[in-house]
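In keeping with the milestone schedule agreed at the kick-off meeting, the structural modelling team has produced records for the first pair of proteins. Each record is given below as a sequence line and a structure-token line. The laboratory manager (R.T.) confirmed that both were archived under the project's standard naming scheme.
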Amino acid sequence: MVWYMYSNRPSDIHVGSDENEPLRLHGRYRRNLSNDTGNHLRLWTYHIDKNEMKKAELPIDKNKWHPSLIPGVITLISTISADGKPNIAPKSWVQMVSMEPSILMFSGSKGNTTENNIIQTKSFVVNIVSSDMAVKVFGCLQWFGSERIEKCGFTLGSSKKVSAPLISECKAHIECSLHNTLEIGSGLVVFGNIEAVSIDKNIELADENRKYELLDQILFLEDRKYAGIGKIRKI
């Protein structure tokens, strides 16, 4: 059912004789109108919602959110220490911060090898993980350092702009120099200046509708659970 209402602003209206199950009208702006007195009014369309969504409270601890409300793109951060030892670590709290200049961030932990290496050598690479790497990426945390790289079978290659290596098996790479770090609670947020970006040539040349399908990114949901991007829609 649709109701129409003329007013200067929308409002939520409850109708119905049952106080326990009122009907809520949701307003949507349609167009401006003028009445005979010259006053400007707006036409709002109201839709009756007979089954208003009921909400349940969740703890503020993200580890107890089932399902996860903030999925993150799974990446492998590759770094190198001051004495030339490479390291890789899975990270999913990765986000763009600025378009101009191009800066991204990821959230890690104070004192970890990845974060220490970045502070020492001022560089890191965000390697984009695809679904065929999921088992290795989830399992790699049982090893450390060079053993992790060897056990997972990853191949390290040279980056174009930074000293940190890239992971050849990944389909895309974002090379970064350190912008700054910020300690927040138990976390250490690392900000990186984007120095170079590369992607599999087959993806770059593919039809627009197939690029994401070929990139095949995966999202971290919660412990041992991940998901693919799924069907791509354009509005």
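The second protein of the pair:
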Amino acid sequence: MSETGQPTRFENRIATSNAGWKPIGWTVAPEPDGANFIAVGRDLSDVREREAELEAAQDALRQSQKMEAMGQLTGGVAHDFNNLLTPIIGSLDMLMRRGVGSERERRMWTARCNRPKERRPWCSVCLPLPDASRSSQARSM
């Protein structure tokens, strides 16, 4: 530093009166004569606290992003599962409309399809088909 004449920075810690430690940032510069140095110290406690808060906020953001990704993944899996069930339920509904199956099987399927909608979100194809005459009247209006 005395050769280049440039200031130097470093950090250390000093003991406090309550038996703790405080981080101090130092800037040391040589005087023009090169024989003496001028040093200025700065308490870095607030800076370290802000850095810790920033790191905690970044960790919370990463956790939130992980949860969002999990939500999207599970939503996608549920959507794919629903797409797999739709033709199965549609086929069962078609068989029911044709009267295929034993009386017991028809009663079980009818009971499942007649539940309130909120208890059977998987069964959208069980709803009665719209009347063709009503839909053609609605189009003509």
